[in-house]
Amino acid sequence: MKIVSSALFGALFGIGLIISGMTDPGRVLAFLDVAGAWNPALAFVMGGAVIVALPAFALARRKPVSAFGDQIELPNRFRVDRRLLTGAAIFGLGWGLSGICPGPAIVLLGQNPTRAGVFVAALIVGAWLAGGRGAIKADTDEGAAPAGAQGALARR
Amino acid sequence: MSIILQSLLGGALIGASAAGLLIVNGKIAGISGILAGATSMRPKTWQWAFLAGLVATGLAAHMIGHSAPAAIQGTSLLVLALAGGLVGVGTRLGGGCTSGHGVCGLGNLSLRSLTATLTFMAVAGCVVFATHHLAPVRRLLELASQP
Fold it and tell me: What are the φ and ψ backbone dihedral angles of B64, each rounded to 5 degrees?
């Protein structure tokens, strides 16, 4: 059942990305092009998403148990370190160059497998280089110190 | 439908998906993290299921006539590979992307995610400014994009 619900939520996420135009790198770049033909759409997409997500996270903070009875592990909300800032900056570099981030890239695999495939393959390799292939320790704290193989670029 | 309404609606669906995955499955809908987990040495089935759902929507869109946006056709394979690599490194180090930090993190009132989001948006904005409005950078990108 967890598999089915996960797949359904993935599909819902994808539909949201497509409807909002976020799978179109042009639309994303237009938001980032503050000095040019600026399009604020992305802000409304993120705003709409956050507003809907807020109550769910508030509930999870109070009662951290999922519907299936699993413990919900929410990521740390206050730790700001060099690793976070460096990572965010590097991500911004790649995102600014292409207008593509992970979610839309996966959806685009279904529409342009070759070009999206190049992006996603490079993404996966980049992630391995940065953090190793070890099991992600906490599913919810993305990129938290992985148990197992350390990546070549992983910082302490 | 107006752009703003379309954006809000799509955003609401994204938020609903994140809310649902959190409450029902107890997981964070951060795509970079889900992808990293799925391709790690200990992949979980739910991660592949989520990714399959994502790809399925792209496939379905393609089948009903919505082909890939022109913008991705216009980006060279070299730039796609470089950008993809940077996104992979950055999201792994930074612990999230626009969905993990931007939607889930902000939804969770996380200062950590707010900092990350502002950082990657600012950097991305600078990159776009350079590639769109600084002649030397734009030229460099054009050269890199030549087949």
Answer: -95, 15
Distance between CA atoms of residues A104 and B54, nearest Å: 9
Which of B15, B97, B128 lies nearest to residue A29, judging by beta carbons?
Answer: B128
Q: Cβ of B65: how many Cβ atoms within 10 Å?
A: 6
State the Cα–Cα distance between residues B63 and A8, nearest whole angstrom: 19
C-alpha A58/C-alpha A88 separation (Å) is 25
Place of tokens 């087949």: B147
Axis crossing angle, helix B77-94 with helix B31-38, rounded to the nearest 10: 90
From CA A123, how far away is CA B88, in angstroms rounded?
4
User: How would you write the pLDDT of chain B (147 residues) with one tens digit per residue?
Assistant: 799 999 999 999 999 999 999 999 999 999 999 999 999 999 999 999 999 999 999 999 999 998 889 888 889 999 999 999 999 999 999 999 999 999 999 999 999 999 999 999 999 999 999 999 999 998 988 888 775
For chain A, the farthest-separated pair of C-alpha atoms sits apart, in whole angstroms, at 49
Q: B138 at the A interface (CB within 8 A)?
A: no
Distance from CA of A151 to the nearest CA of B (A): 10
Q: What are phi and psi of A61, to 5 degrees?
A: -70, -35
